[in-house]
Amino acid sequence: MPTSNTSEPPASDAESFEYIVVGAGAGGAVIAARLAEAGKRVLVLEAGDDPLAPQHAPPPSPRSLDADYQVPAFHPFATEHPGLRWDFWVRHYASDGEQQRDWKYRREHEGEDVDGVLYPRASGLGGCAGHNAMIIVRPNNADWNHIWQVTGDPSWKASNMAKYFRRLERCRYRFFLYRWLDRLFGWNPSGHGWSGWLTTERSLPLRTVFDWRLRWAVRSSILAAAGLLPDAVGRWGWFDKVRGDPNDERLVDPESWGLRVPPMSTARHGRTGPREFLLDAQRRFPANLTIRRNALVTRIDIDQSTRTATGVVYREGVRLYQASARPHGRPGPERRVEACCEVILAGGAFNTPQLLMLSGVGEPTHLQEHRIERIHALAGVGRNLQDRYEIGVVSRMRTRWPALRGATYTTADGQYRSWRRWRSGNYTSNGFLFSVLFPGKCIPVLADVFCSSLLADFRGYYPGYSEEIKKTDYLSWLILKAYTHNDSGTVRLRSSDPLQRPEIQFNYFEDGGETTEHDLAALVNGITFVREVADALGELVEEEVAPGRHLFTDEQLRQYIRDTAWGHHACGTCAMKPEAAGGVVDSRFRVHGIDRLRVVDASIFPRIPGYFIVTSVYMIAEKAADVILHHPDAGRPLDAR
Ligand SMILES: Cc1cc2nc3c(=O)[nH]c(=O)nc-3n(C[C@H](O)[C@H](O)[C@H](O)COP(=O)(O)OP(=O)(O)OC[C@H]3O[C@@H](n4cnc5c(N)ncnc54)[C@H](O)[C@@H]3O)c2cc1C
């Protein structure tokens, strides 16, 4: 019988660190780097490898892992690269009939019974920040104030959280005078950071500027979009004043709608992020930071009598987790390592709840189903799974975009050479042109519909989707519904085998009531909006291929949305709320009822924040470092407290 934990004293020969961080993704890498900088002895255990300097050769692939990781335009290929990818298969609906209406649904894939829709994740140093689209958009103030309301902890107030964005960012796309005014006089109206670890840039490839057709298309779309927004003149004034910057503090919340040009997390137009920060911290503080790759944590060791996390158990091996590309390596023997201060979980919204449940923390009947010995009953583990709803409106153009001539999205073409030699050209961009934000219906002030245009054929995630990105005669609008009302998704164990993926059920549009109607209505508005913008392109467009203009009534569009929506910002499965309200962690990231165990990743959000989630994850990791380091007991082993 698989038991999760014992109350035996730890083996005396086990290695010991002050902090053990599980997972080196957006949350884990940042907190580990900050703790190591502060002089703590930290061990990072990461199931994946380093994409740029792998310990083990990645599985054979025609594509270069190095380029897919670094080149902004190659991010879709990074999500399908066997050296990085973790494929999850998720259900949007419990009913088979409803689920199978989605053409992206697969019953079987590569000889495996998958029964779901592909949900890409990345494993390796940087986690999903190693394959994401690098879009950096800070959340609204309302998101932090909501956590303050839920927890009663005033340190979550937006006015306090703003400093974390400044701390982490190294903005390189706003007027340099701002940097000096901040440095000399402490005057910083834009709220940007100038010397953090996350470089943010924008890209404006000359080829797109010189492509008259694209220029005309962008101009016409912007004018059409601006004309559709209320108070077009006032909003244009704001756009001009802050250069369409979604991260300018003056635009967060009350002015959160209008036209935007989101920046990317790139340094000299190559991907940068938590991986680079973590490795830099290791270079600066080698004695403090140990990083073990290809190390899958299978259990948290929790002392039953004191309910205290004392360490973790892990297994070494290449691509051990079933979500990784095959071939899977052979799992090495179980190894145990002790944390004399704390264990910090940062495995992401799917893996952190899985690990807690495997370790005996979760809903008692569910643990019993899998014959896992219960350490602490915590019903909220794996509940409250949330995501955006996303929809694509895709048009085929009459001719190819001249700016994309010769683009093969491989290392074999001139555009790649131009990126590699000069860091210039189309591949410096992630493909997004500009975005429009507006309130879809439900929240009158906060924008909840985020529409972005990109030069590609993109209709969601399914095996091989990245090949479609190579088409050079398409324009897609990605409509993202923020502040969705669905919090009934779940992550549950499929088995007690830690190498198996959990069962993920999003329960889309679940409540069927007014709030579902709000979400659907907002998405219908999004489709109508981008269609009107696309109409401004007149003869340039050959045909709308998805949804297709034959679908035009509200009812038809709602059904289309239900059938094809997807998401990629999963969060909330270890929510920061009081235990009685279904919470898993308190406002100091501590797991309710278990001592010396924290969670610092996307799973802690009680409500899905903002529009793109990774900036919020970076900010909470910065906050968690403050919470841990400024606590009077920080760094003191338990028996000394
Ligand atoms: C395709 C895609 C594109 C995206 N684009 C954007 C974007 O442009 N902008 C944006 O803001 N957000 C984007 N996101 C979302 C964002 O990148 C993620 O939400 C964010 O990285 C989540 O951070 P995390 O720390 O919770 O988890 P992750 O970044 O997923 O990190 C978790 C890490 O933990 C490791 N791990 C898990 N379990 C274990 C274990 N048991 N033992 C050891 N290691 C373990 C994993 O290997 C992984 O490296 C995108 C997401 C996807 C999937």
TrEMBL record:
Organism expressing this protein natively: Defluviicoccus vanus
Q: Required cofactors, per record?
A: FAD
One of the entry's Gene Ontology molecular-function terms is: oxidoreductase activity, acting on CH-OH group of donors
Q: Where does FAD bind?
A: V297
Cited PANTHER family: DEHYDROGENASE, PUTATIVE-RELATED, GLUCOSE-METHANOL-CHOLINE GMC OXIDOREDUCTASE
For this UniProt record, give its keywords in alphabetical order, as a comma-separated list.
FAD, Flavoprotein
Domain Glucose-methanol-choline oxidoreductase N-terminal, which positions?
Answer: 348-362
Q: Which family does it belong to?
A: Belongs to the GMC oxidoreductase family.
InterPro entries on file: FAD/NAD-bd_sf (IPR036188), GMC_OxRdtase (IPR012132), GMC_OxRdtase_N (IPR000172), GMC_OxRtase_C (IPR007867)
Q: What is this protein called?
A: GMC family oxidoreductase
